[in-house]
Amino acid sequence: MQVSLPALKAFESAARLGSFKAAAAELSISPTAVSHHINNLEQRLSISLFVRTARKVTLTEPGKELATAAGLGFQTIEKAIEKIAQKDQQINVATTSSFAALVLIPALQDFYTQYPQCKVNITSGESIEADHFTLPIRFGETGKQSGADIIKPEQFNLYCGPQTAAQFNHSEQITIYTTDWKNSRLPKVPLQAWIELNSLHNSNINVRYYDQELFGIQQALLENAYVFCSDTLIQGYIKAGVLSGLNTQPISSRLCYYIADKQRHLSRHNIMFVEWLERLLKQN
């Protein structure tokens, strides 16, 4: 048997509070509306739920039975809503391995300091399949993205350890690590354009490639070599004094970090995370 949910809620409130007037105040409706809901419910069930007198209303035995069941039912619903609301405080992020390892994870403590009620769950990989509730922070071609979705256009430059920087102009041959993307549809890193920009086309340069920027940065650190990479990923190492940029001109690229269809993903807590992330990237 189907009954009206507003009528059941009016009954539960009146039964719990022992008053149609008090129920009306709790539900922000008129006492007449409460009475109307309960009368309709009684007609639907073909039974009296209250004994009405001039001064008070009292539950009948069937009314007591229904009040117990209705109270438990609404408590269950309220607990479920609270649980769902708590889950909303978890922010799910899917991004590339390099961006997760070199940008997001090192900065998470700062986010938690500002938003201690939230929890961030990060999954990484080069192929991102994100649902409506997951923030997809992707790396792609600037010209193919909406301007509103882009969170950081990329520049590239050459980086190395502080001691290695002094040897740059005196080495007969230099080894540069850079990236040949696993995703062949991405624009290539602008190494050749950077070489031309800095008039290094006559230099003896040995280029070695990895399919992720993270690997090239790590290898350059191990070998005291040079890495040609994006300025976004290198900032943590620069702040730590482990790597530094050479006195060369950086070059803009056709690449960017973006959140695909960003507006669709801006739930209440995701907005806080995106605003924090955009502030973080502006500092870099």
From TrEMBL:
One GO-annotated biological process of the protein: DNA-templated transcription
Pfam families per UniProt: HTH_1
PROSITE patterns per UniProt: HTH_LYSR (PS50931)
Family: Belongs to the LysR transcriptional regulatory family.
Protein name: LysR family transcriptional regulator
Stretches assigned to the HTH lysR-type domain: 3-60
MF terms in GO: DNA-binding transcription factor activity; sequence-specific DNA binding
Phylogenetic lineage: Bacteria, Pseudomonadati, Pseudomonadota, Gammaproteobacteria, Alteromonadales
